[in-house]
Amino acid sequence: MPSLSIHRLLGLASMDRINALLAVDFPVQPSTCTDQFYLDSNYQIHQLHEASTILAKVVSIQAKLTSRMRCHDTLSSDNIALTIVQNLLTLYECVNNRRRKKENTLWEVLDDNPTHATVKLKTLMSKVSENSADFQGKLPHIQLRNFQTLGAGRWLDDEIINYFVEKWCSKSGTTIGFNTFFASKVLFQEDDCINPKFKVTVADEQTVGSWYRSAAKGVLNWDSVFIPVNENKTHWYSARIDFHLRRIDIYDSLKERYTVNQRKPMLLRRNAPLMMMLMWLTEVLGRIRGEDIDLSRSSDCDWVYDPHFKVSFQPNSCDCGVHLLWHLRHVLEYRQITLDHGVGEGELGHLAFTRNMVGKRLRLAREMLDDIGLGIV
Length: 377
What we know:
There is one protein chain. The chain has 2 domains: 6-112; 152-351, Adenoviral Proteinase, Chain (3-Layer(aba) Sandwich), CATH 3.40.395.10. It is globular, with a radius of gyration of 24 Å. Helices cover 54% and strands 8% of the residues. By secondary structure, the chain is α/β, with parallel strands linked by helices. It starts with 5 loop residues before the first helix and ends in a 6-residue tail after the last helix. Helix 4 runs antiparallel to helix 5, helix 6 (114-130) packs parallel to helix 16 and helix 11 packs across helix 13 (272-289). The protein has helices spanning 6-9, 15-25, 35-55, 57-69, 76-112, 114-130, 132-135, 144-147, 158-172, 182-186, 202-215, 255-262, 272-289, 320-334, 345-348, 358-371, and strands at residues 175-177, 224-231, 235-242, 247-251, 304-309. Strands 1-2-3-4-5 form a 5-stranded mixed sheet, sandwiched between helices.
């Protein structure tokens, strides 16, 4: 950031002033779908990310400085030091805001231009394969073959789903994300996740407790759970239990399943048996939370059940996994899946569902590479 200097940090600077200085080094680019826009955007995002990593240390510096200052008489230099630290904290916030804005603009442009996004994704996948030694072993449980399922037209595998569910839910602090194998071991009769169980035992409840203890690590104040379902290794969908909103929803991006089942009575709908298992799971998790939930009682009748919640539909047979991850993004951001109602599509921006989700695939691949510091563009 050439426009910034120690001299500029000596006086207390407003956020507007710091943003103006950042605009000199990281100017707004015309949002055109060109190779130059893509390269420039990625370069600036990378630079801002590096600056953010360095500035993040200021948070601990401020805490230490404040603590030490209590141990001695006030010095004339104290105010200067505090001013610089405060300016650095403001700079840290401004850098993060500008990075997010540039990222969001880039992803919106790629969402609007799927052909261009496909070319970029194929190029990225090719470069990672050529430099496989730099990738292998850097992410837990992720091999190159797993990463490659993010490629255009590929079906996402379990490890990719698990990676993002664990990462995003852990960061959220409010949502427990179960492993993709949870549903097959707890909710369904067989590993293919086709036929839900119709009876449960004490052992089943103990199994839930074991899975919960593993999934809830680091998620201290949770009030919802997200459950990915791998149906016969050919289709992804998910379920969510929200203790705050008191509702249970099943999200499936296959349009035919939604339209056919909406016309049926509730108990005859395809996902009705699974909903019964989710109601049981809600009661079990409620006990873990210290809540007495009995969904057979009239006192708990304010819970809402939607076995076929309306979502954006996939136009192909391969994007179900990407839709599932975007369902989770919406749940964490908006607490519910949002299409174009309630929040304008323009406001959804980079989180909006698109008919062709290749831009989302590129975004997910880029996020994984950023997580290991592999700056391949």
